[in-house]
Amino acid sequence: MFNKKYVKYFIVLSAILLMMLAPIYSLGDYSITNVNEDMTVLDDGTAQITQTITYNITGEINGVYRTIPLSGNQSIENLTVTTPGYYNELEVQNTSTGQEVKVWLYKDKEKTQKVSDAIVNVTYHYNFLKGVKIYNDIAEVQYNVWGNSWDSEVGNLHSTITIPGSMSEAQYWLNPPDIVKSQKVTSNSLITEYENIASDDTNVEQRIIMPKSYFKSYDNADVINKDAKEIIIADEKKYQDGINNTNNAMLLILIADLILIILPIIIYFKYGREHKINFETNYLTDIPYNDSPAVVNALTNKECGDITIDAFQATLLNLIDRGYLKIIYSNEKDMVLKVNYDKYTDNTELLGYENSLINYLREFEDEDNNDYISLEYLKDNEDPQHFIKYFKSWTSTVRKNEKLNEKTVKIFNDKGYWDGELAAILGIIFGFLAICAGFILGRIYASPVIIASVILFVESLIIARMPSVYFGSYTIEGCEYVGKWNLFKNYIKDYSLIKEYPPQSVQIWGKYLVYATALGCAESVEKNMRKYFNTLNLSEDEFYSYPLLGVGYDMGFLMMFSIFNHLNTIPTANSDNSFGDLGSFGDIGDIGGGGFGGGGGGVF
Is pLDDT at 54 greater than 60 in this prediction? Predict the structure, then answer.
């Protein structure tokens, strides 16, 4: 048992700790709508920086902070912060990488009310020493007007850099160049506008080289004993060429994306459109062809030529209807069959796959009970993996016995299907690689490339799973064949047609159920059959004298479907089956990270 005294102490200490931490942590958030950056380079190498950041505060905060990276002998001096309309307290901390400036914000002069749900302008003003570099041949300002350590994007950024001489004798670069909204050069200033700067790992850098004669002294500059002009120009050219090459590559990727997106449409219009055949009626009351149910299943399903589990079940029902299998009894829980050996011994008229199906069922005969075959027993004792393997072998036998490949080629042209599959595979591979390229390479075409590549990738996944009939097409003979079976399907699924044009005999419902199973609409036809039989006055002897009428009427039909659909499902794995680089100080800086300034910030 817990001692209540200790629990009391724990609650008190926890409350004290939370009160102590409350001033430090904030529940508020922010966004930066505008930044105004103004830097003046003096003739002794000092960089006077004034930076105004507009924070859009939501919720309540304690204040804002700003990190200023420093390297080597760099330092800042004369730091001041102003917050018009709000009161503040300034706190400066030295860190291993520079200085952190924390600005505590208050609404009142007594500094008791925190800032919440407000727009606050914070202006930082300071001198940066040893940021300007003086080489043997030139002077350089390499300044990060915005750093890579912010977790908020910037709506607008205005930058002005003023040098101690004329811009006409200077050279400048804006890195990266493709995020610049506008630029303007005056007599001694570079004015740049940026828009929607993302919060990522990119430094927004401005680089200017100028004559050394612009400086009267180098007291506050970083003097480097090296010629740098040609190196810097070559580096910038290489960087710009790399950007151009990347942009060109991204443009080509975008074009390829669009071509691959359109390609399936071209394939469909070339191969996928069907011939139009006008039938005199929209239904057929008679079975249109004498093909076996397995063949009908293969030629009419959406994967023309493939054999589904419905073909297996339709063949089983067909063997019952033809008297090779007897139904002992059936209901919603079980169906019990028995091989009719009086007829099966003389099985010359059966095809190999029909013999195979009967022999498969015989594996589950109950020798102690008249060789009855219980489908419920089969379900409980058959291994789905074994059945799937058997079913695959059975479909191969169907193909061979029925010469199914020749019949499929006769009615269906699959050229468009295979072209569509190839286009889908290319789209999946290229789309995935292009998405990666969009995120890794970036640049101006990054967003359209990523969007187009995602569309291509998703489209290709869908096409890869689409049935063959969407990109392949039936021949004229195939359109007539499938069309007539669809007309028959319309009839057996529509009870109003059955009621108006009833079958010529009750017995024919057995054939209806067989082909309804092959066509994949057995359940709706079974319901229509039950509804139709309820309108007839059949004696029980007359009703059950036809093999398939009883099994269709007493729900054993649906029970059989559930068993073989279950066995044809591969077990899943979850089933119970066992199966801020700051660059280098004192040398020529790298592009995008070798200058001074930058850093980041946020709220606290």
Answer: yes
The separation between CA 481 and the C-alpha centre of its own chain, rounded to angstroms, equals 40
Contact 544, 328 (CB under 8 A): no
Please state whether the peptide bond connecting residue 176 to the residue before it is cis, i.e. omega within 30 degrees of 0. yes
Q: Give the pLDDT confidence of 254-278 residue by residue, as tens digits.
A: 888 888 888 888 888 877 777 777 7
* Confidence check: pLDDT of 27 > 60: no
The closest alpha carbon to 51, from 68, 35, 65, belongs to 35
Can you give the pTM of this predicted structure? Answer: 0.55
| Gyration radius (Cα) of the chain, Å | 40
**Burial tier of 4 (Cβ tally within 10 Å: 0-12, 13-18, 19+):** exposed
Do residues 371 and 338 touch, judged by C-beta distance below 8 A?
yes
b/e for 137-169, b at 16 or more Cβ within 10 A?
A: ebbbbbbbbbbbbbebebbbbbbbbbbbbebee
* Banded model confidence at residue 546, pLDDT cuts 50, 70, 90: low
Q: Residue 497 class from Cβ within 10 Å (0-12 exposed, 13-18 middle, 19+ buried)?
A: middle
Contact call for residues 305 and 412 (beta carbons, < 8 A):
yes
Q: What is the pLDDT of residue 199?
A: 67
Mean pLDDT, the chain, integer: 81
Q: Quick one: how far is CA 585 from the chain centroid?
A: 44
CA distance 579 to 275: 47
Helix H, strand E, coil C: the string for 511-543 is HHHHHHHHHCCHHHHHHHHHHHHCCCCCCHHHH
Instruction: Kindly provide the b/e burial profile for residues 483-496, where b requires at least 16 CB atoms within 10 angstroms of the residue's own CB.
Output: bbbbbbbebbbbee
Phi-psi region of 68 (alpha: psi -120 to 50; beta: other; left: phi over 0): beta
pLDDT(391) > 90: yes
